[in-house]
Design brief:
The structure holds 2 protein chains of 2 kinds. By secondary structure, chain A is α/β, with parallel strands linked by helices. Chain A is built from 13 helices and 8 strands. Chain A has a single domain, classed as TIM Barrel (Alpha-Beta Barrel). By secondary structure, chain B is an alpha/beta fold. Classes of the chains: A alpha/beta, B alpha/beta.
């Protein structure tokens, strides 16, 4: 009975068994935390701490930001190791437009592919045709038009982008408020106004109409980009996120250096405390007593980088078309 | 005495997963869903649904504040329906890998037995339920590899049970909340009524 599976025939596709299966997995991932991991030990910590899924990558956004260079799909060797080490679903990132990386990820058995602005884009005009894959895709969006363009291309989950690798939640908030506000605005328009709204949003009319009638996106809407504390997670869930992605906030310490969870027991303990606390706060997002308890249990935090201090050309969120 | 019974109040374990979809399915059948995130929210319910999601994640929450022990006692006497991860939690034995469970329903469940997401599938076949073939949505599904003597098999996939019942407990390895067909949820509500009339 999920709305997402019964919403009619957008592009003739929302009833296809392929898309229903993709949306089905997205449904199972609701109300939880998806954690970025760079090695097997981090993946195990994520699973032990209650993550619903892990995102396998070579460098978390904070490191990509600090180190520069071209950021690409993770090595298949790393992805296979992580798949073998946990029982929860494993996600991995492909560059925007890089359908050959996505084909590799599908071949490896990754459960969800993130066509991600965190990596260096491979195509400055086209995103991946996600209908062509059996594996479901998640894509980032900053506003409703961008979200609907990605859904039109076959994305089975949207995550608001925020600004990755900062530990500053301000843009995650901005993008979630933008999308939910735009959805509310659509619901009061008359039928004849929806055609113009579709033009303004630069999104397919059928999807715009569907959102106007249902008051929600036709796929789950998760949140990412700068969520670093239990209270950040609770904030995004109260603003309408159905699950949160946490990247650099769990396994990073000062500067752009990861905690050494493999060799240093104290640093491992610190990572575990943060992972468990964010999981706890995400499920109990409406219970300040539990969010307080979770916040108190956290050891250390990533130092963070104020998103306002980042020059325009260094923002990751502006990647994607 | 002759008043028609009021709507059933059914808890949906909302630690993580497809609890929203189950709540909608219950509303469509006239029941009142109540999300359960802490033990005290189990009070006053007629039955409980444990949804799909990640059983490892749900177990982490159950380990807090003696929720596991409270739930273990609760499902012994209250009608409970587990789908996918919820079925894994109800089972007496869990494999692939082994993990703790409430051990209420005498079945052995193998996790992710049909493979990864790329192996997820929708099948339609005849079952013990009246009304023709039933659509079954399998998402990274577990497999019931053994059923105890008191367990009745109501649907199968390749000879393995996918929907089973034992007394006041019901378990499915597929996701009736992702289909438009209300029969499995209705079966559970009937089971709740039946339990109340015999209690």
């Amino acid at each position: 009975m999920a709305d997402h599976t019964l919403n009619g025939n957008q592009n003739g596709n929302f009833n296809s068994s392929s898309l229903r299966l993709k949306l089905g997995l997205a449904e199972m991932l609701k109300g939880g935390v998806i954690m970025d991991v760079m090695n097997v030990e981090q993946a195990r910590i994520a699973e032990e701490s209650g993550a619903i899924s892990v995102m396998a990558l070579e460098r978390v956004p904070a490191m990509i930001r600090a180190e520069g260079g071209v950021a690409r799909m993770a090595s298949p060797k790393l992805i296979k190791q992580i798949i073998a080490s946990v029982s929860i679903p494993v996600m991995a990132k492909a560059r925007i437009g890089h359908f050959a990386e996505a084909q590799v990820l599908q071949y490896l058995g990754v459960d969800f592919i993130d066509e991600s602005e965190v990596l260096t884009p491979a195509d400055e005009m086209h995103h991946i045709d996600k209908h062509a894959f059996t594996t479901p895709f998640v894509c980032g969006a900053r506003n409703l038009g961008e979200a609907l363009r990605r859904i039109s291309e076959g994305a089975a989950m949207i995550r608001t982008k925020g600004e990755p690798g900062t530990g500053d939640v301000v843009h995650a908030v901005q993008h979630m408020r933008q999308i939910t506000g735009q959805i509310r605005a659509l619901t009061v328009l008359g039928d004849e106004e929806l055609y113009h709204a579709a033009k303004e949003l630069q999104a397919p009319y059928e999807l715009v109409r569907m959102v106007a009638k249902s008051g929600k996106l036709p796929v789950p809407n998760f949140s990412a980009g700068g969520i670093a504390t239990p209270a950040d997670a609770a904030l995004m869930m109260q603003l309408g996120a159905e699950t949160v992605f946490v990247g650099s906030g769990i396994f990073m310490k000062e500067g752009a250096t990861p905690l050494d969870v493999e060799n240093n027991p104290l640093e491992r303990e610190e990572a575990v405390s943060r992972a468990k606390a964010i999981v706890l706060a995400t499920t109990h997002f409406n219970d300040p007593q539990i969010v307080a308890e979770a916040s108190e249990a956290v050891i250390g935090s990533m130092k963070g980088l104020a998103a306002a201090a980042i020059e325009q050309q260094n923002l990751m969120q502006t990647r994607g078309w | 005495m002759n008043a028609s019974p009021g709507p059933l109040s059914i808890g949906v374990l909302a630690l993580q997963g497809a609890y929203g979809a189950h709540a909608k399915a219950l509303i469509a059948l006239g029941a009142i869903p109540r999300l359960v995130r802490v033990p005290k929210e189990l009070e006053g319910l007629d039955g409980l649904i444990m949804p799909g999601g990640e059983s490892t994640t749900m177990l982490k929450f159950l380990e807090r504040n003696a929720f596991f022990d409270i739930l273990q006692t609760y499902v012994k006497s209250t009608p409970t329906f587990g789908t996918c991860a919820g079925a894994i939690l109800l089972a007496t034995h869990v494999e692939g890998p082994a993990q703790r469970s409430l051990a209420a329903l005498d079945i052995t469940v193998e996790r992710n037995a049909y493979g990864r997401q790329i192996d997820s599938t929708i099948l339609t076949s005849d079952t013990a339920l009246p009304g023709g073939p039933l659509e079954m949505v399998f998402i990274r599904a577990p497999r019931i590899t053994r059923t105890g003597p008191t367990v009745e098999t109501l649907a199968t996939r390749d000879g393995f049970p996918t929907l089973v019942r034992s007394g006041h407990l019901l378990a499915a390895t597929f996701h009736p909340e992702l289909s438009g067909d209300p029969r499995v949820h209705q079966l559970f509500l009937n089971l709740v009524r039946e339990h109340q009339s015999t209690a």
